[in-house]
Amino acid sequence: MKIQIGTIRQGTVMATGLRANGDTSAMETYNGWKNYETWNAVLWISNDEGLYETAKLAGNFGAFAQEMREIGDLETPDQVAWSDSGLDIDALDELIGEL
Q1: Least confident interval from 2-6, 39-43, 48-52, 62-66
Q2: Helix (H, G, I), strand (E, B) or coil at 8
Q3: 55 vs 95: CA distance, rounded Å
């Protein structure tokens, strides 16, 4: 499979190439994550000591988000809600599982 890097716009990396199924449509990610919202949540969980420890103790993103709701912290400092429907929960679960 051959992947070529295409354009970069406002932090979004757009890669074009040939997928395994032959699809040549554009594949978009945000700094390697599904979207801005997921990237932003990862950024804060990975780099803020309090969020990191909360996530580590929670063990998965669902429990982390619940804990954040209980303490009244509903979003990242960049105003992305911990309950945002665009978040890639599988990726966040994987991240938290590796903390």
Answers
A1: 2-6
A2: strand
A3: 9
pLDDT digits (tens, 9 = 90+) for 14-32: 443 444 555 444 457 899 9
- Distance, in Å, from the CA atom of 18 to the CA atom of 71, rounded to the nearest integer, reads 46
pLDDT for 12 equals 45
Is the pTM value of this prediction over 0.85?
Answer: no
DSSP 75: B
Instruction: Say how far residue 69 (Cα) sits from the centre of its chain.
Output: 19
Contacts within 8 Å (CB) and 24+ apart, 79-88: 80/36, 80/37, 80/40, 80/41, 82/41, 84/37, 84/41, 86/34, 86/35, 86/37, 86/38, 87/37, 87/38, 87/41, 87/61, 88/33, 88/34, 88/35, 88/38
User: What is the C-alpha separation between 2 and 17, in angstroms, rounded?
Assistant: 6
At 43, the amino acid letter reads L
- Edge to edge, the sheet with strand 12-17 lists 3-9, 12-17, 27-30
